[in-house]
């Protein structure tokens, strides 16, 4: 059974790209072995995959969280990753095959029409490679820059969302709306710090929010109520807020 959710998109043309409404068509089983592929957006804050696997370990009794891995290159775009090599049997630890491979693009891959075209090409290439391995693929939607980053732009998240949704639909893969979760969190609580001082990379709270969003997207479960708080480093108020935002973002994006 296919455990991924198929995203069906209806296109309404706007001044930039197409405006989409993602709709969930189907749900299936749960992945056990998972590989995150991306850059520093994944490994800041003790790595998204570490927070994610601790959440899954808490939620699913007996889950072997050592089967969740991450392969990252600082500053990398999708074209820089040798996905075929990474997903070979025992290329990473003793894992024979990854059920799910999550692809995170570079933060600048949605900024120009040329980079969006290249992003689309490499998503297609990597998804074909992943499926040839009898694995499933998903896209990790990145968050937008904030001020005072030199590449900050108003409504950047709209371009990011439209790009990832369009490419996800074209390749019929799950899109994990991390960027939307960041945007929603800032809308509801402008004082929260989800970015580091460089206005690009995620802070610890941003990484925690990303992990909650991945959890909710993959398993179709709410992270609200999970006790995991990074060993007390995240206070109860922030933990609850970020869990709620993650579930709200996925529910809105998947039209649940």
Helix-strand layout with pairing:
Blueprint: E1 7-8, E2 11-13, E3 18-20, E4 23-24, E5 34-38, H1 40-43, H2 48-59, E6 68-72, H3 83-86, E7 100-104, H4 113-132, E8 136-140, H5 156-171, E9 174-176, H6 178-188, H7 204-219, H8 236-253
Parallel strand pairs: 5-6, 5-7, 7-8, 8-9
Antiparallel strand pairs: 1-4, 2-3
Please explain how this structure is put together.
The strands form 3 sheets. The chain has a 5-stranded parallel sheet, sandwiched between helices. It has a two-stranded antiparallel ribbon with strand order 1-4. A two-stranded antiparallel ribbon has the order 2-3. It is globular and about 45 Å long. With 256 residues, the chain is an alpha/beta fold. It has one domain: 3-Layer(aba) Sandwich (Rossmann fold). Helix 4 links the parallel strand 7 and strand 8. It starts with 6 loop residues before the first strand and ends with a helix.
Main β-sheet: number of strands, strand sense, barrel status? 5 strands, parallel
Order of helices and strands: EEEEEHHEHEHEHEHHH
Mind telling me the C-alpha Rg? 17 Å
Which fold name fills CATH's third level, the topology? Rossmann fold
Helix content: 25-40%
Number of strands: 9
Mean pLDDT: 89
In total, the number of domains comes to 1
What is the CATH architecture term? 3-Layer(aba) Sandwich
Coarse morphology: globular
CATH top level?
Answer: Alpha Beta
Structural class: alpha/beta
Largest sheet strand order: 6-5-7-8-9
Number of helices: 8
């Amino acid at each position: 059974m296919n455990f991924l959710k198929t995203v069906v998109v209806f296109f309404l043309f706007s001044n930039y790209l197409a405006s989409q409404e993602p709709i969930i068509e189907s749900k299936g089983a749960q992945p056990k072995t998972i590989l995150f592929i991306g850059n520093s957006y994944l490994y800041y804050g003790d790595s998204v995959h570490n927070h994610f696997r601790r959440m899954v370990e808490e939620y699913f009794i007996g889950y072997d969280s050592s089967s969740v891995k991450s392969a990252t290159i600082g500053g990398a775009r999708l074209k820089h990753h040798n996905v075929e090599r990474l997903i070979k049997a025992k290329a990473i630890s003793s894992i024979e095959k990854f059920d799910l491979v999550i692809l995170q693009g570079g933060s600048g891959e949605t900024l120009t029409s040329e980079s969006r075209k290249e992003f689309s090409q490499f998503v297609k290439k990597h998804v074909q490679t992943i499926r040839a391995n009898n694995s499933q693929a998903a896209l990790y939607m990145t968050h937008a820059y904030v001020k005072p980053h030199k590449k900050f732009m108003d409504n950047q998240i709209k371009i990011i969302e439209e790009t990832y949704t369009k490419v996800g639909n074209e390749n019929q893969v799950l899109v994990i709306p991390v960027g939307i979760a960041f945007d929603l969190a800032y809308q509801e609580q402008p004082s929260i710090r989800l970015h580091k001082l460089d206005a690009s990379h995620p802070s610890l709270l941003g990484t925690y929010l990303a992990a909650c969003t991945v959890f909710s997207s993959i398993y179709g479960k709410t992270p609200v109520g999970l006790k995991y708080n990074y060993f007390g480093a995240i206070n109860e108020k922030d933990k609850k807020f970020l869990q709620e935002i993650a579930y709200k973002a996925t529910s809105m994006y998947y039209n649940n």
